[in-house]
Amino acid sequence: MIVPKQKVVIAPKERIIVALDVESAETARGIVAEIGSSVGAFKFGLQLYTAAGPDLVRELCQAGHRIFLDLKFHDIPNTVARAVVESARLGVWMLNLHALGGTEMMQRSVEALDEISIREKFNRPKIIAVTILTSSGATELREVGIEREVSDEVLSLARLTAKCELDGVVASGLEANPIKSAVGSDSFLVVTPGIRKTSETNDDQKRVMTPAEAVSNGSDYLVIGRPITGAADRKEAIESIIKEIESAELN
Q: Is 5 tagged catalytic?
């Protein structure tokens, strides 16, 4: 039985997770040094992890930055559970795996994470599950044999994730409020990538939203890459996004 938790109030600045989708540790360090005090966290994904490895993750965590380790684990349950444990030992704030890995994989990972955080006495990171990538639509799902509509598949995976007692999911803002309704908890986190300003291209994303739209639709955290890291003035871009979030929260 899932016990609803009290909803945590998140400050506008803290909602912003900047995606460090860059080629080198040097570039990542430069971005973090420039805007580290202006945002809530940084996302460390596959590109940077492959280029710089776990040492940079540990370095940034030890420097006091909140890191969302976005490696989307999906393997046999024992392998994923062990990877989750090693990720937690790096000091990350949040990590993720694929909900499509199923119940045993997710439950084993949560159990391992709970056990190691108690035994080794460190703050347990949040663990969330990827539902359907925001780059995927109905065509991509059908290619791999999933006949449901995207929104239906996302809700099904969110319910499974909540049943396995993870902290939330990665999902489009389009599905955020329906997810919270489906799992019956406002404290169940929805972390939303694919955030773009209205004037910007969608690049490789399909199910995209503006920061204001995502927050209005129930997203808790926003993963934002190019609109910030590619901006001529990154701090100004962040201030603009914060104003959008504040405006959405007032409405």
A: no
Asked whether 105 and 136 are in contact (CB, 8 A), the reply is: no
Cβ pair 179, 217 in contact under 8 A: no
Please, are residues 196 and 134 in contact by the beta-carbon 8 Å criterion?
A: no
Residue closest to 114 by CA, chosen among 106, 103, 124, 104:
124
Considering the candidates 13, 72, 206, 235, report the single residue annotated as catalytic. 72
3 in a structural domain: no
How is residue 132 written in tokens? 């359907």
Instruction: Summarize pLDDT for 196-221 with one digit per residue, the tens.
Output: 875 454 454 455 689 999 999 999 99
| Model confidence pTM above 0.85 | yes
Residues 72 and 147: their CA atoms lie apart, in Å, by 23
Residue 101 lies in a domain: yes
For residues 20 and 240, give the distance between their C-alpha atoms in angstroms, rounded to a whole number: 19
CATH number of the domain encompassing residue 220: 3.20.20.70
* Rounded (to 5) percent helix, strand, coil in the chain: 50, 15, 35
Note whether 162 and 188 are within 8 A (CB).
yes
Question: 245 is in which domain, residue-wise?
Answer: 13-250
